[in-house]
């Protein structure tokens, strides 16, 4: 499928599209005049049109090599308990990828609005002060808008998890590499179960194909060496470079994604080594004693060497990955419980599965989240990783029946169900 068949605009001819893709491969992402050069290679297109076309290429679902990344079909209840044995007990039984349908079932869902909804950096003062719990939390198309952040992606226990914060260019986990993951510069992986790491080589390869800059990938330090070996094997097999920066992060360690955004790993409790991540914003604030001074006075103080600002560090997003609820009572995890948004695995939602069963497989049951509600001080909680045994109605029913301590601030990621 070519881009112009998907794009409703007929302005791109097949030749232009071909020239565009060739130009993408010719002029690397770090080339300062990249867009000018690409535009020069594509007859009849402006730089703006080129950029737009590029956005659609890398972001719109179903537009990258749809034949190479089969999208799963999850809504068949006949997938039944045998396949779920792997999701609920992947660590014990060995998990294979889930079930593919032969073709994409998302072909008609591609939407321009994904781009239209894109916003700038999420944590401006304005946005935060204007957002009270329960305000801008609406479902728009495929994405959720929660506490000033756009959240996309999908998460189906045992099959595939990839949760994306496009304004931060961050994706958490990559079970299968959905096309949209490719445009995220940072990938944070919680553990090595296939439904969380299986799409990693494809993610790196696809970024290479489009000459995007090498991504930064964070993994638990315990699997770093094996991930390196994995890439070595893929390099050997397909003779490609697979450029990326791989960071092994231990629990409690931090890494700056950019000047005002850092990530810290925290302990989670799963059946194999695992960790969650907290994203912190860092802002320079004027010290209280200098608030109210004139611009000139502040300037003078500053030039005389006085430290007039301090750094305000706040936990914005915490992502657990797979874990038992025990992470909640871990005294080192207080920042997780006060992050603005907590993205929390919740594999089981009703009493068809017991808490004991959930714990046997290293997962969390909704009833445990309810009993810990008072500990969760988060403005919003996004539940993910539901077992594929559930229908979307069952999940929504369970979430709608939450007690007041959780209702109004709890969301469910049901994309793909
Ligand atoms: Zn999982
Ligand atoms: Zn797992």
Task: Explain what this protein looks like in three dimensions.
It is a single chain. The protein is 30% helix and 21% strand. By secondary structure, the chain is α/β, with parallel strands linked by helices. It has a domain at 148-412: 4-Layer Sandwich (Metallo-beta-lactamase, Chain A), CATH 3.60.15.10. Strands 1, 2, 3, 4, 5, 6, 7, 8 and 15 form a 9-stranded mixed sheet that branches. Strands 9-10-11-12-13-14-16 form a 7-stranded mixed sheet. The model is unreliable at 1-9 and 60-141 (pLDDT under 50). Bound molecules: zinc ion (2 copies). One zinc ion is lined by residues 90, 191, 193, 270, 322. One zinc ion is lined by residues 157-158, 161, 193, 195-196, 322, 385. This is TRNase Z TRZ1 isoform A. It is found in: Nucleus. Pfam families: Lactamase_B_2 (PF12706), Myb_DNA-binding (PF00249). Residues 111-130 have a biased composition (Basic and acidic residues).
Primary descriptors:
417 residues, alpha/beta, Metallo-beta-lactamase, Chain A, nine-stranded mixed sheet, 16 strands, globular, disordered N terminus, binds zinc ion
Helix content: 25-40%
Tally of strands: 16
The gross shape turns out to be: globular
Hetero groups: zinc ion
Q: Count of DSSP helices?
A: 16
**Which segments are poorly predicted (pLDDT under 50) over 5 or more consecutive residues?**
1-9, 60-141
Instruction: Quote the beta fraction.
Output: 15-25%
| CATH architecture designation of the domain at 148-412 | 4-Layer Sandwich
Distance between the termini: 25 Å
Secondary structure class reads alpha/beta
Mean pLDDT: 81
The CATH superfamily of the domain at 148-412 is identified as Ribonuclease Z/Hydroxyacylglutathione hydrolase-like
What is the CATH T-level topology of the domain at 148-412? Metallo-beta-lactamase, Chain A
Q: Mind summarizing the main beta sheet?
A: 9 strands, mixed
Instruction: Output the radius of gyration.
Output: 22 Å
Question: CATH class of the domain at 148-412, anyone?
Answer: Alpha Beta
Protein name: TRNase Z TRZ1 isoform A
Biased composition (Polar residues): 73-84
Region (Disordered): 1-37, 67-142
Domain Myb-like: 10-58
């Amino acid at each position: 499928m070519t881009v112009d068949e998907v794009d409703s605009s007929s302005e791109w001819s097949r030749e232009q599209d071909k020239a565009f893709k060739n130009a993408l491969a010719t002029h690397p992402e770090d080339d300062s005049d990249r867009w000018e050069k690409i535009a020069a290679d594509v007859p009849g297109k402006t730089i703006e049109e080129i950029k737009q076309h590029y956005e659609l290429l890398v972001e719109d679902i179903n537009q990258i090599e749809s034949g190479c990344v089969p999208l799963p079909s999850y809504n068949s209840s006949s997938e039944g308990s045998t396949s779920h044995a792997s999701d609920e007990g992947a660590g014990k039984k060995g998990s294979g990828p889930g079930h593919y349908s032969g073709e994409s079932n998302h072909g008609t869902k591609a939407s321009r609005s994904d781009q239209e909804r894109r916003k700038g950096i999420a944590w401006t003062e304005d946005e935060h002060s204007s957002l009270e719990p329960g305000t801008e939390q609406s479902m728009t198309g495929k994405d959720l808008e929660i506490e000033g952040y756009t959240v996309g992606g999908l998460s189906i226990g045992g099959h595939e998890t990839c949760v994306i914060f496009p304004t931060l260019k961050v994706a958490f986990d990559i079970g299968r590499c959905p096309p949209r993951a490719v445009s995220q510069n940072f990938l944070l992986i919680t553990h090595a179960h296939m439904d969380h790491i299986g799409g990693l080589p494809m993610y790196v390869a696809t970024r290479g194909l489009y000459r995007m800059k090498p991504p930064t990938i964070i993994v638990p330090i315990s699997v770093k060496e094996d991930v390196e070996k994995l890439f070595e094997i893929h390099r050997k097999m397909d003779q490609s470079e697979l450029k990326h920066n791989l960071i092994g992060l231990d629990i409690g360690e931090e890494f700056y994604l950019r000047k005002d955004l850092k990530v810290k790993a925290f302990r989670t409790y799963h059946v194999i080594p695992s960790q969650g991540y907290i994203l912190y914003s860092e802002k320079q604030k004027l010290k209280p004693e200098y608030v109210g001074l004139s611009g000139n006075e502040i300037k003078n103080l500053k030039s005389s060497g006085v430290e007039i600002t301090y750094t305000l560090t706040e936990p914005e997003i915490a992502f657990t990955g797979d874990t038992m609820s025990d992470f909640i009572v871990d005294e080192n995890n207080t920042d997780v419980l006060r992050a603005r948004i907590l993205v929390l695995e919740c594999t089981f939602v009703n009493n068809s599965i017991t808490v004991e069963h959930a714990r046997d497989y290293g997962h969390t049951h909704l009833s445990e989240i309810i009993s810990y509600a008072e500990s969760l001080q988060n403005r919003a909680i996004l539940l993910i990783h539901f077992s594929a045994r559930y229908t979307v109605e069952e999940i929504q029913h369970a979430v709608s029946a939450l007690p007041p301590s959780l209702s109004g601030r709890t969301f469910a990621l049901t994309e793909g169900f």
